[in-house]
Write a structure and sequence with these properties.
With about 500 residues, the protein is an all-beta fold. It is about 0% helix and about 50% strand. The strands form eleven sheets. It has a five-stranded antiparallel beta sheet with strand order 1-9-8-7-6. The chain is elongated and about 85 Å long.
Length: about 500
């Protein structure tokens, strides 16, 4: 495992870059089907670098970008999108077109290269780095031959290849992170502990993962490669289904943050809107004259921005399948897009060594941000427990009964169903009897429920082997929801046991 200081060694803060401001270009003309529409745009320069990714921080006009020059030196920058000022700049000479993403709560930045790092978004210090041993494989080659014939190898050499991270995405509750790799693998991580939960494999002969996304309800992971398919895995069962509808390789995907529809774009110049559950194409958006390389939904899911090889940025009304406006100012392909929280700004990143910030507030895409529905977040179960005995002294004596009061609350954004409670004692005492906790059929967002579980301590009988009569007994309380959203953290409880009189 590479130490956490790895990132600090590679990142160099460029104070000279931090004072560079964007070039404002008011009145740059954009075209729309309804006629000419004046849209202000200003440019954030990234000299000698192709900009691969841009991401707005949730709820703020802070912008993250990654770019790489021809020598392989990659730069991550944090911008003030309102002023065009570069707030921080980090340089790394080993990143290869790395991806980066804000968590949904805006507190964490994930960055990928040979491994995945989590940074705190306020001070950019390393929060966690994930293990790299799962990213390498060993290849045995014949150094005297250009082709490999395992039965005729003479001089052998073992090569260790590092598979770089190509894309990243947080789950809606930020508890999970998915990372795609150039060898076609996808890894699912627990962001709190940094442990690897699952490794998924894309198409065997279709190269690296180009894009990976978590659905807003946490129930699906979608990915695309250099083929015409989209692979979708259910979570947490990891059952795979394949969506077919594009004629050429799919280059980018994006989930609607409210309704859970999936948008995809590819080399066939089409944008498709999918119902993932049914595996059906709902709408096809046509208009691009080059490959579609970038997609971004507005926060309310009503509007979709697309861009790509034809150097244009297009904004669509998803429900009407209608193109609202075409923005033209890039001189080369556009690689990424990002709406800010209220869809008044749209950032686009391109191969023309610049980021463009489009002021689209006059479009009134979201007239009142307070009316925007919140994205569908998965349920989040938290709990507490205490012990009550019949005598009221808090001590469980022999022959006495009591009850555990277990409280569960759903602090997430979606309902939890069929919640099973397990009460596991630290030791197996024959004199303690604990009843089974009742099933919780449903727990809506913001709701709480209280469970009463009967506890009894047997009276001492003649000839019975009696365990230690005094002290305390510890319990671990866990809750399991049918869709995999478990109680976190687990609840610990201790019961004081009285000595016999």
């Amino acid at each position: 495992m590479r130490p956490a200081t790895f990132l600090c060694v590679l990142f160099i803060v460029c104070s000279a870059c931090a004072s560079r401001t964007g070039t404002r270009r008011p009145g740059t003309l954009a075209s729309s089907p309804a006629g000419n529409l004046s849209v202000k745009v200003y440019t954030l320069p990234c000299p000698r670098s192709k900009v691969s990714h841009v991401k707005f921080a949730p709820g703020r006009n802070k912008l993250l970008s990654t770019a790489a020059d021809e020598s392989g030196i990659s730069t991550l920058k944090i911008w003030n999108a309102s002023s065009g000022e570069a707030m921080e700049s980090f340089v790394n000479d080993t990143f290869i077109d790395q991806d980066a993403a804000f968590s949904h709560d805006g507190l964490t930045i994930a960055i990928g290269n040979q491994t995945v790092f989590l940074l705190w978004a306020d001070n950019y210090k390393v929060r966690r780095s994930f293990q790299v041993d799962a990213y390498s494989d060993l290849r045995v080659i014949d150094v005297d031959q250009s082709l490999i014939y395992p039965w005729a190898i003479k001089n052998v050499e073992v090569l260790k290849k590092i598979h770089y991270v190509t894309c990243l995405a947080f789950s809606a509750d930020d508890r999970l992170l998915v990372s795609g790799y150039e060898n076609g693998q996808i890894k699912v991580w627990n962001t709190r502990y940094g442990n690897l939960l699952q490794t998924l494999r894309g198409g065997r002969f279709h190269g690296g993962i180009l894009d990976v996304e978590f659905s807003p309800d946490g129930g699906h992971i979608a990915a695309c490669q250099e083929d015409d398919k989209i692979r979708v895995w259910s979570y947490p069962r990891y059952e795979e289904k394949i969506l077919r509808g594009h004629d050429q390789p799919v280059k980018v995907i994006s989930f609607d943050p409210v309704n859970g529809y999936l948008a995809s774009g590819g080399r066939d110049r089409k944008v498709k809107i999918w119902d993932v559950g049914r595996g059906e194409v709902l709408r096809t958006l046509s208009g691009h004259t080059g490959a579609v390389l970038a997609l971004s939904f507005s926060r309310d899911g009503r509007y979709l921005a697309s861009a790509g090889g034809d150097k244009t940025v297009r904004i669509w009304d998803v429900a009407a399948a209608q193109e609202l406006v075409v923005l033209r100012d890039h001189h080369r392909a556009v690689n990424d897009l990002s709406f800010n929280a209220n869809a008044s700004l749209l950032a686009s990143a391109g191969d023309d060594e610049a980021i463009r910030i489009w002021d689209i507030s006059d479009l009134n895409l979201i007239s009142d941000p307070r009316l925007v529905p919140q994205p569908l977040y998965p349920p989040r179960l938290v709990g507490a427990a205490n012990f009550v005995d019949l005598s009221g002294d808090g001590v469980l004596e022999k022959g006495e009964e009591g009850k555990l009061i277990i409280e569960a609350r759903n602090t997430g954004g979606d309902a939890a169903y069929q919640i099973v409670t397990m009460i596991v004692p630290d030791t197996l005492r024959p004199d303690l009897k604990i009843a089974q906790a009742p099933l919780i059929p449903q727990l809506l967002p913001g709701e709480s429920v209280s469970l009463e579980v009967h506890v009894a301590r047997a009276a001492e009988e003649k000839g019975q082997a009696v365990p230690a009569a005094s002290g305390e007994e510890g319990f671990t309380i866990r809750m399991f929801e049918c869709n995999g959203f478990h109680l976190f953290p687990v609840v610990r409880l201790k019961i004081i046991l009285a000595a016999p009189r």
